[in-house]
Amino acid sequence: MMMIRFSIYWLVIGLFLFGVESAVAGPWPQQRGVGYYKLGFGFVRATTFIEPNGNRISIPTLADYTFSFYGEHGLTDRLTVVVYVPFIQRLTLNRQVGRETGAVYFEGDEKTGIADADLGVRFGLFQVGNTVMSASLNLGLPIGDHKQQSGLWTGDGEFNQRVSLGVGHSFYPAPAYVAFEAGVNNRTEGYSDEFRYDLEAGYTFRNRLTTIVKLRGLEPFRNGDDDVSGGTGGLYANNQRFLAYRFEIGYGITRNVGFSLGIEGATRGQTILSAPAYSTGVYMSL
Asked: How far apart are CA 15 and CA 89, in angstroms?
């Protein structure tokens, strides 16, 4: 029974790769009055967890289904507002039955609700030719539930602030780009602060099909309270560490409307689920 409780305790703080649209935006500001908007759905289902010491353990099946909205809108040619709202997140934890005895150790549980959201701004610092640099500030809004009895949290109950610098270069006339962004996430309520970074490259074929490869990483400063664990989604886990890789394709149905498909995994992980995350979405550029 202690092993069952230990597994539940750790698995509910480990789900990090799930996210229909990353709240960390690229370095390019939107033009005044122009925006990018996306409705997305993401899914992950895991039976294995990587502990803080790197060991992999089997866990009861944990699934996460999230519907979200992501938007960028240019207030001026240099100032863009960015919002990410996971407006429906459903978490399910399978019941646990003894393999030999058939005894039910845990009946299973579920949680459905709104999750923590992000609100931020991106400010264009300068542009030289096809190279741009910008600064971003994102605020984590603790509107999710961090008190669910089984630990199936949709939020962490803390107000965090992320500051970052990004640089991007577009290759012309070839329809390709590369971008790098790095920054610090200041967390409250006993959570450790974090260093976050990502590297992204993309190429568009015949103005329709875009392929994207992205690496993103997180390194904790380990300056928080070790007794604070966090909730589900891995967005909330304390002292989490990972290097994730993502592959995505986007297809433009029209000049302003398209859809995307993505898959993400991770290496060098600690306090994370060992499972791929899938996402899809419909986007609009106006």
From this structure: 13
Residue 24's Cβ-count burial label (10 Å; 0-12, 13-18, 19+) is buried
* 27 close to 251: Cβ distance less than 8 angstroms: no
| Highest mean pLDDT pick, 67-76, 102-111, 148-157 | 67-76
Q: Can you name the residues that pair with 169 across neighbouring β-strands?
A: 131, 178
Strand partners, 41: 67, 280
Most confident of the following: 151-155, 173-177, 182-186, 268-272? 182-186
Reference 65, options 85, 83, 95, 45; nearest CA is 45
Instruction: Please report which helix (H) or strand (E) contains residue 10, including its range.
Output: helix 2-11
Give the range among 53-67, 76-90, 119-133, 157-171 with minimum mean pLDDT.
53-67
Q: What confidence category does residue 277 fall into, taking pLDDT thresholds of 50, 70 and 90?
A: very high
The CA-to-CA distance between both ends of the chain, in Å, stands at 55
Answer yes or no: is pLDDT of 60 > 90. Answer: no
**Residues 6+ positions from 106 with CB-CB distance below 8 Å:** 4, 8, 60, 93, 95, 96
Instruction: Say if residues 71 and 281 touch (Cβ distance below 8 Å).
Output: no
Total domain count, the chain? 1
Which CATH number characterizes residue 276's domain? 2.40.160.40
What lies within 8 Å, CB to CB, of 137 at 6+ separation is 120, 121, 161, 162, 163
The answer to which of 83-87, 232-236, 242-246 has the lowest mean pLDDT is 232-236
Q: Could you tell me the residue range of the domain that residue 222 belongs to?
A: 2-285
CA dist 177 → 26, 73, 77, 167 (Å): 11, 21, 20, 11
Phi and psi at 71, nearest 5°, equal -145, 145
